[in-house]
Design brief:
The chain is of the alpha/beta class. It contains six helices and five strands. The N and C termini lie far apart (41 Å).
Length: 163
């Protein structure tokens, strides 16, 4: 069975994330979407909430499993028996950062390979941090995130002090 993982913070999950998940799930028998639960990073949504927001979009996909982790991605890759990490890239800046991260992961876990998947052009400009900021100021983000995420953001972003 060919397995891969797509790690990230997904705070919040965007249509770009959803697109990468859908495309990756077509390539692998099992895709683990691994939500980072980093206590040092201030997230708008808890890891459990981010897992639910992602899962709600893939109820009919049996080969997608969404879970969280604390620690190094290579540790969860080792635990899951995964040797491929999927990383979405939007532009050259993303690639530079992701390439360095891939080389570090390769040093820590030589059996892991990183697959860089270019973002679909429709989602080229989507950044979770920008979407959160736009939501605070009441912008229409419905073309950037799944409907369930837009609803959760609207409920969460009650005031500008939320972030």
């Amino acid at each position: 069975m060919k397995c891969a993982m797509f790690p990230g913070s997904f705070d919040p999950p965007t249509l770009g994330h959803i697109n990468i998940i859908e495309r990756s799930a077509r390539l692998y028998d099992r895709l683990y979407v691994v939500v980072a639960d980093n206590v040092a990073k201030k997230c708008l949504f808890t890891a459990e909430e981010r897992i639910r927001l992602i899962k709600d979009n893939f109820r009919d996909k049996e080969n997608i499993e969404v879970l969280s982790f604390r620690g190094l991605t290579v540790d969860i890759a080792r635990e899951l028996g995964v040797d491929v990490m999927i990383r979405g890239v939007r532009a050259a800046g993303d690639f530079g950062y992701e390439f360095e991260l891939a080389m570090t992961n390769k040093q820590l876990l030589p059996t892991v390979e990183t697959l860089f998947m270019p973002t679909d052009p429709h989602y080229f400009l989507l950044r979770s941090s920008a979407i959160k900021e736009m939501a605070i100021f009441g912008a229409d983000i419905s073309a950037m995130v799944p409907a369930n995420v837009a609803k959760a953001l609207a409920e969460r972003v009650v005031s500008r002090e939320t972030l």
